[in-house]
């Protein structure tokens, strides 16, 4: 196991959870926020990375519409940034794990995408994330890319499950798209997989990590309501065309972990089981009124 875990983008959803878990496990952690380490700065990495470190790049422009609105920043953070980190890791002899996305796929397939399936990103976000994967592997061929999808905490911030949890606790209906299908991933399960990858025994350049199964956003929202004892019929299906958004999303981007499990990763649990656990955790931003 690497002596120290260095986390970029540690103020974000995945970075914060990873830092918390690593500290809970008693590991030495350097959790660096955007303000502390701007990965787009080519000179910065060498200040933070040392021989033997495990560096997990959680920094990204992960807001799909923000990336579409500002492609230059998206390129700097999603392509040049990871490339900078990879060069630094290769130079000093650190291990690197880089997080990527289901949005590298076009959505034309109708069965879960596995490693090696044809990519075809539809958005600036997807294109820059795919270019970031290639840049990392070119700079450091023994880095590991972990593609994940539809990540949520369910307990804080504005991820989809946390938002639906707040809505479930109030009155009224909520309109949710029923024409986009993906694999929800509980951040805890993603982080467990990142630790597994960090042990360095799985020697594949690209891995997929997602909870097992697929659903639409509508089905996911209904599941949140059901788990919380709220009326799932308060969730109403709409077409994504009714929700105007800047960037195109793949209509189907479920991920298969079959090849990743064959490579050594622990098989994922079903998305409903992971969701139930997430919703069993207390809401931690004080915004949730009592459960209806
Ligand atoms: N969330 C999902 O559903 C999902 C799905 C698939 C893949 N992923 C991938 O998972 C990874 C983590 O995403 P997330 O959900 O944790 O996103 P997030 O909550 O938006 O976190 C990203 C973090 O990166 C930071 N950042 C932005 N520009 C930076 C820079 N130049 N240098 C250093 N840090 C910078 C952000 O800080 P500021 O906010 O201060 O700029 C933010 O704290 C990303 O690679 C994302 O593409 C996420």
What would you say this structure looks like, in words?
- This protein has about 290 residues and is α/β, with parallel strands linked by helices.
- About 35% of the residues lie in helices and about 15% in strands.
- It has helices at about 15-25, 45-50, 65-70, 70-90, 125-140, 160-170, 185-200, 215-225, 260, 270-280, and strands at about 5-10, 30, 55, 95-100, 145-150, 150, 175, 180, 185, 205-210, 215, 235-240.
- It has a six-stranded parallel β-sheet, sandwiched between helices. It has a two-stranded parallel sheet with strand order 6-9.
- Strand 4 (about 95-100), helix 5 and strand 5 form a beta-alpha-beta unit.
- The structure holds NADP nicotinamide-adenine-dinucleotide phosphate.
Order the strands across the largest sheet as they lie in space.
2-1-3-4-5-10
Largest sheet: 6 strands, parallel
Mean pLDDT: 95
* Bound ligand species: NADP nicotinamide-adenine-dinucleotide phosphate
Helix run count:
10
Helix fraction by DSSP (H/I, runs of at least 4): 25-40%
- Uncertain stretches of 5 or more adjacent residues: 287-292
How much β-strand is present in the residues?
15-25%
Radius of gyration from the alpha-carbon trace, in angstroms: 19 Å
The termini sit apart by 45 Å
H-E order: EHEHEHHEHEEHEEEHEEHEHH
Quick rundown:
The protein is an alpha/beta fold. It has helices spanning 13-24, 45-48, 64-69, 71-92, 124-139, 160-168, 187-198, 217-227, 258-262, 271-280; strands at 4-8, 28-31, 54-57, 95-101, 144-148, 151-152, 174-177, 181-182, 185-186, 206-209, 215-216, 235-238.
């Amino acid at each position: 196991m690497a002596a120290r875990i260095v986390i970029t983008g540690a103020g974000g959803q995945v970075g914060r959870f990873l830092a918390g878990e690593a500290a809970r496990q008693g590991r030495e952690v350097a959790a660096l926020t955007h303000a502390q380490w701007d990965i787009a700065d080519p000179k910065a990495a060498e200040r933070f990375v040392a021989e033997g470190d495990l560096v997990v790049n959680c920094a990204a422009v992960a807001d799909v519409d923000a990336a579409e609105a500002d492609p230059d920043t998206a390129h700097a953070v999603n392509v040049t940034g990871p490339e900078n980190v990879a060069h630094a890791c290769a130079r000093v002899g650190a291990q690197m794990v880089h997080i990527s996305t289901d949005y590298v796929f076009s959505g034309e397939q109708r069965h879960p995408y596995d490693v090696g399936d044809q990519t075809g990103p539809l958005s600036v976000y997807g294109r820059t994330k795919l270019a970031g994967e290639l840049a990392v592997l070119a700079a450091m061929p023994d880095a590991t890319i972990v593609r994940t999808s539809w990540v949520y905490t369910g307990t804080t911030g504005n991820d989809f499950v946390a938002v639906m949890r707040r809505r479930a606790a109030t009155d009224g209906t909520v309109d949710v798209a029923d024409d986009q299908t993906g694999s929800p991933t509980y951040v805890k399960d993603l982080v467990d997989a990142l630790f597994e990858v960090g042990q360095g025994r799985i020697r594949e350049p690209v891995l997929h990590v997602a909870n097992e199964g697929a659903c639409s956003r509508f089905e996911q929202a209904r599941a949140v309501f059901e788990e919380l004892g709220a009326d799932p019929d308060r969730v109403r299906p709409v077409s994504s065309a009714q929700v105007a958004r800047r960037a195109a999303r793949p209509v189907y981007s479920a991920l298969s972990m079959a090849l990743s499990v064959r490579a050594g990763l622990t098989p994922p649990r079903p998305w409903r089981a992971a969701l139930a656990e997430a919703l069993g955790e207390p809401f931690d931003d004080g915004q949730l009124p009592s459960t209806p």
